Amino acid sequence: MSKSEIISVKIGAEAGQGVKSAGLMLAKLAIRSGYHIYNQIEYPSLIKGGHNVLQVNISKDEVTAPRRVNDILIALNQDTVNKHFSEFSADSALIFESDSKIDTSKVPPNVALLGIPLSKIAKESGNSDLLINTVALGAVTAVLGGNLVILNELIAEEFGNKGEEIVKANALVAEQGFKHITENYKKFIKGFLVPSDSVSNFVPHMAVDGNESVALGAIASGLQFAAIYPMSPISNILAVLAENQEKFGYIYKQPEDELSAINMAIGASYAGVRAMTATSGGGFSLMSEGFGLAGMTETPLVIIEGMRPGPATGLPTWSDQGDLQMILNAHQGDFPRIVLAAGDAKEAFELTMQAFNLADKYQTPIVLIIDKNICENTQSYPLLDFSGYKIDRGKFSTQIIKEYQRYELTPDGISQRTIPGSGNFFIANSDEHDQVGYSNEDAETRTRMMEKRMTKLKVCKEQDMKKPKLYGPESADITILSWGSNKGTMLQALKGLDDVNYVHINWMSPFPTEALEEMLSGAKFILNIECNYTGQMARLIRENTKIKISESLLRYDGRQFYPEEIIDAVNNIRSKK
Amino acid sequence: MTKIDDLKTPHFPSWCPGCGNLNIWSSFKNAAVQEGWDNGNSAIVAGIGCHGHIVNFMKMNSFEGLHGRALPVATGVKMVNHRLNVFVFTGDGDCFGEGGNHFIHACRRNHDLTVLIHDNTLYALTTGQTSPLSEHGFKTKSTPQGNPDEPFNPLALAIISGATFVARAYAGDMPKLTEIIVAANKHKGLSLIDILQPCVTFNKVCTHGYYRENTYYLEPDYDPTNKQKALDRAFEFGEKKIPLGIFYKSDKPSYEEQIPQIKDKPLVEMPLERASAVELFKKYT
Ligand SMILES: Cc1ncc(C[n+]2csc(CCOP(=O)(O)OP(=O)(O)O)c2C)c(N)n1
To answer: How far does B243 lie from chain A, in Å, by closest CA?
Structure first.
């Protein structure tokens, strides 16, 4: 296997057949064998039935996006064959249930047909059909030339809490799936997943999705209170937080709705702890009133917004970038809206941690935007590290302060914060207020207070805002501009393109106007790529800069861009030029 | 020790002369002096309405939030610092209109909060519209032909939703109101006081005279631990038939008493460092 080569395995099944856990085990098997992975999961908004697919992409090099083709397709049902028969790569195989009547007539003739009696093997272990995904996992491990010992290790870890029996049954059927390949389809075995020689030198990697990395980032940042109402695609943030709350001594609370979620978190923060909430667009619509309340009362708060396609209920389990302008403009009136957007799970981890410090420093809500692809697609990274992170609570004190004024006017707009119970008196007031916090409608006071709050945005721009990141050559024929989960697709596409670079934007507000203008001053052709109908990032750029975008590539079908599509788009532009 | 002057702010109440809010304000201050509530041990969360202005007239740390959202803010405060006495000042519109859902759930979870409802049976700050507690047929700016909706019963709703201390008081009887506020605060769990609060400007029916005429206190031998009886009495209403006092009281653990993370001390006093999270990260390798 060459360094840049990617092997893509797609598993397709009905919801409930364990596609996700099988995909994750295969990913971990790859990681432990010294490879990088990117898992993409796609499924409809159904619990049982419906078509679920997961693509595991494995490479010796970093892999950051899904692929349009598959080298191995594992079909646990007919739908998988019907929907994906046109996605086979040149040298590929289909693993499928040989005992059922799966019709493979549409599969191209060059594809190796590896029929396996999956349910028979699963049933022989004394257990039910539930284990067919593990049989398939054993089989694909064999086809890839993977190591059964590592797979058994993973099975023991994954099912350990379900008891010895279950572990044994899974290990048994995995082995039989594996053997079925070695005994019947020996010539189709590929040497991809052989634990690489350098595996012992390979820095330990982890496989995380953005929901997990946000939760881990929050825990590492000293999160003390989270109120999150379930909603796709961020529900797994709350699952991770709920599970670990006793161990780390913070509270996760499921509130009655998002109105309550944000207000509870605001109350907790006012009382002195690090607090967060998370939601998707629909929940953020409800939270927009609390968003401004935190701004007005100058209460630190971290809000995670995981986008999915709207409006209304939209496509609950798919991805989109259509909430950007809503978030930048949510709530009545002006207040410092600090809005960041992560491009992958690692950025989500880092920006979550930074968001907690920013919230404390500027005493205002920080929104971190992610999207379904980031939330639920898994990528491998060197063990996420927070050893260098310093919890900084900003101007915060629990001591008695003489002549204390919560909203004292200061050059940077940031006042000393204390908490109820400290002995200090103040009013955290949603009405316009004076420096103590008493309601006040004077024109002069109002003017000063508005300026005080908005100054924080200016200071944040000077002290904390980061420039967009440039990937690829310094100067190029075509410059791609994008944000969010498109990052991974662009990085992958760059590997197959010459003379193209990519500018990735993380700071939405304050906006890096000068930096972006400078970076793009020599750009010859700017291709803006977004997953929404109106080009919301392009609008933001028009509003803040003099940059002229040459062309926009937009999609709003909920699907993730493949690197191949970006390469096609670039070639298309070149052929027209 | 809290002295009445400690609670003084530069702002004198802006409520109309004769407003029941003045009585609630005084009674609360009296209770604070009696019990020693101060900026070291207490916090107030208020809603939006005439009632919410109270934060400006009492030097006690407070959060004045959004219309309808006082309860979620207060539950957030209480969960992270259960050593604080947390008082919620809310209106019948704030608590039962815009914030109705929060009310049910705060009761259900039995958060250890003291909730004071300024019940003037209408929206006063917006100059007199109907509220969820307005009587059927009641004429207001928004119901000039008479209110077509039935009011709901806040006491019964609290009891069936799971609140563990449910009382009604009349603002005009300040000693008694003070006593009930103190008892409500001493109770561990969600304590609700529906305070009949005459609005002298917009409510010409529920006046001080009307309440003086028609209220009475539950009998000395009344047993507030009997839920069924409490519900029966909660539905008693009308001429000469408005009971006051503690309707219902039950000893269930409060929400905050059930959270293992805060058994030893409030969350706000815990360290933030999480070096041990490294172990958790290894789960993902
Ligand atoms: C979201 C929102 N909707 C409407 C209002 C306008 N508003 C302010 S107070 C109020 C009603 C207050 O009634 P109540 O809670 O009974 O308080 P009272 O003034 O009677 O004390 C309304 C509708 C608001 N501030 N916010």
So the answer is: 32
